[in-house]
Specification:
single chain; mainly beta; 4-stranded antiparallel beta sheet; 54 strands; globular
Length: 828
Amino acid sequence: MSDADSPYRAPRPGRPDTGDSRTWADDSKAWADTRDAHRLIAEALARLVAADPTIPPHPYLSRHLAHHAARGEVLDDTHVPLAVLPWESSANVRTLLRQSDAVSDAVSDAVSDAVSDARRQEWLEAWARIEPFIGGAGPDSRLTSLHLAHHAATRPRTPLDTSTARVSGSRVTPLWSDWTAQDNVLAVSETRLESLTRTTTTDGRSLLVSGDDHGTIRMWEPHGVPARAPLHTYGGAVQHLLPLPGDLLLSAGTDGSVRVWHLTRGQLLAEPVHRPGTWVSALTLFAAKDAPEVVLVAHSDGRLGALDPVTFRPVDTPLPSLDPAPALLSGVGLGGAEGMVLAVAQGRRVRVWDPRRADGYTHEHEHEGAVRALVDLAAPGRYALCDDSGYIGVRDASTGRETAVAPPPPAGPVVALTALTVAGRAAVASGGSDHTLRVWDARTGAAIGGPLEGHTAPPVALTTLPGTSPDTSRELPVPAGQELLVSAGADHTLRRWKPGGRGVGAGRAVRRPVTAAALSGPGATAGAPLIAVADESGTALWDTGTGRPVALPAGHAPVTAFASAHVRGERLLVTAHSDAGIQLWSLERGAHAAPARLAGLLGHSLPVRSMAAFPHEGRTRLVTGGEDGTVRLWDLDRVCALVCREDHLLSVRDVAVLYTARGPRIASAGTDGTVRLWDPVTLRPVGAPLHCEQRVVNAVAAVPVDEPDGAELVASGGEDGTIRLWDPGTGRPVGRRLDIGDGPVAALAFFRTATGRPCLAATGPGGTIHLWDTDAGSHLLRIVTGSPLGALDALDARQPGGPRPEHPVLLAAGVAGVCVFDIRWEGR
């Protein structure tokens, strides 16, 4: 709909505008300026937004208000109020904010601060963080997710202020958060991305092009909005993309075919290569001296062919001989009119082929690991490569001499490379299996800037975008001679980065991922829970009522799991560590005193991943499940081991305690795909293992049912993304599978609402918390965080050692940190 078609036109000149003493005639001169016209439209539309975010605005507001505000340079929380954001349907707020921020980046810090004070964008920025992940969530979920994201961004490590914590219509009240998620996501794909490139269309536009594992090719604007309808190959994964002049694109992948596409028409033009039973291992352009340019296609069986880049017919031209194995290829420009030589990698061996020489290959060298990527650099005659050992090096294509070596990354192989220019210097960017991008000087091998962190899985493909100056584009400006880096990750995201700095729009630095987190009952302030949080830097207890931390004494390995216990009236915190040890700590030394270590438990040979404490026969028991595949039972009163079981074939992922008519039972979930039940007296199996048919079972929880005997069901959360309920007495499933729909289930937690409604919370790498009514089997709410989660814990009437909270409290933790909130399903 055009601006002229808006149903919310301003009054005619001379007629008072509702809610404003000015007349439209007073602003008539502003209409001569497009920017001011959009500002006036945004102001008029903003006055039509209801104060209550549960009331749907007119569709025109939800689609166009942010756009008008951005074009009027008034994109702020006043002109795009909170109440319209849960209904926002244009899916471009994050794009508009990037364009708006480009103006601030181009001016001085003092002016930027002044603009920031005048234009508060807290709610808009919170929405932009979750917008790529919100999908088709309903208004309840959108508003709740926005509320939580806003609190996490604006009140980190701040005690609860009930006067500001409530938002009408939100199903939660944020209590405490320590959350630093990146916000440089360009786009989110439902499928795994496999390839990425950049093309320039005939009208001069830069577009990103991605290929995925379902054979789909997508085109994106540089700010992440889809540019065209997707192209479907109906073949295997698209692992190679090669743009050509005239809006043409070549694609290739696991089905052994090469296809030719016209991007602007969205049309498949030809399929010049089709070799079923093989896959394409390389697709590149090559131009020898005094020879026409050709497209080289290498297959997994070592067969190499050449195509004419105009007719796409086979070309009879000299080609190097390859071993019968997959090959990586990269043409290396020698500068001027010297043409190219060809770098060829097969396994650990790299060779350089020069078509001008009769003997073909000029030199070769072996690497410690299999070569993962080859890339031609901006420096003539230089190419970079990486391998499985973590090596990143630059070599001279003429001599084979190594000219630069980058320091090895801290962990794992390097899986992707791309060439770029940083401040006029030739550079190479790498993506590692540690999920981190790094940029290196191609001349010296020295790092340029710090690690670029934010992906939650390895970046599998890299490309660049040209930098622009603030006077010619509203895109993010970068210094002359520098490019932006774009990465496609196995976490299904496209992200954009500024080399030599933090991720574009990243805000605060990324914190270390949380390795374990749990609620530990009330702290110094009545009703305010105590939170145990561990990451690579250490372990701390946070009191959500005071906002004060207490660190556990140093000297212990990183924490992998927590449990709370009461032994003879004393509150204990139990910690499991990466060295397979377990420590007991007293929490009775005062509100701000460090916990006192009481004892240690030894027995596991690999780290413990889950623990649960429970009272039994007048004593306190602790059950632990470890990566060594064992389930162990401990007596915390006497600080001793009771029994060990080794029935799980692989590691134990989670344990829980449930109560049946015959007494308590221990449930353990394993990577062998089973849930097993144990008698806590003997730790002998109860019944046959539950074969859950969910691949790996990552999580298990006890689910009470409203029956006279107080029986409980067992909930299992699987790698296949489903939750199943089981009757522990019969070993049979109860009800239908519950599908979270966004990846594996990593954690489960049961709680009851204030009116006693039984609910199950589930989460995983998708970063969304799902709430289910277990009685009805109905999905209640999605809470989108935009960052993978690995831990959940709940506090309600079942939690020992303190008063029952008025509303159940839920903790969620993962890559970006930890957040705690209560659930207010009834009564808002």
